[in-house]
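Methods, example record. To illustrate the input and output format used throughout this study, we show the complete record for 5'-nucleotidase SurE. The sequence lines were provided to the predictor; the line carrying structure tokens was produced by it.
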Amino acid sequence: MRILITNDDGINAPGLAVLHDIASEIAGPDGEVWTVAPAFEQSGVGHCISYSHPTMIAELGERRFAAEGSPADCVLAGIYDVMVNARPDLVLSGVNRGNNAAENTLYSGTVGGAMEAALQGLPAIALSQFYGPANASLPNPFEAAAGHGVATIRALLDRAHWDNGADYRLFYNVNFPPVPSAEVKGMRATTQGYRANTSFSVEPTHSPAGRRFLWVKGGAQHEPTAPGTDAAANLDGYISVTPMRADLTAHDHITALKEALE
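The corresponding predicted structure is encoded as:
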């Protein structure tokens, strides 16, 4: 198997090294793992692409490339440049430092990379490691992802539906819980949650020269979400697996809208 990996934390992020180990085991001794990741951190860029300017790409080692662009740019670079003679069989994005559950999903460059791969007709999985008091101070905060990443991906490849041939094909968003590997309770199929009492916001500050700037800041990550959703499963010790599509249509409102307009 030929696997392309990317992330949004940057080419030197520890989570990418964890993902490389996971991908290498999935690919097997006769497989290949190719890395095309952002040269610099791209957290929060979502599914953006560098449409209005070129993206510089540099080869850092065997099957290892850094691109000055977003995760979606990196996926495009991998498919149409780095691996142009043999497309990947699978695209993995992550392992993100921090959760991409609930509303974080909408901002996530990690999810954006997987989404772009799905739009290109490839099976794709986004993987993120929830942080919390039980794992943030571990020698390896990615312990849950490292310990359960291979089994999770294999379960999806072997048993999940991939919707081959659909206009907007499925991809999967995986979040590992904020606990040590030994305390992971299993996997749960989940929907995307919503943290009702928190949101992104901005905080003003001033530079030493007196200029005013705004920092974007996130809200509390341990706010409860509804049962059966991603963050709720994570906070209960489970790996959440959420099937997703790039189709943003609110299908449940089409009938009512037709009646209202027609």
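Annotations derived from this record:
The chain has one domain: 2-197+225-248.
The chain has a mean pLDDT of 97.
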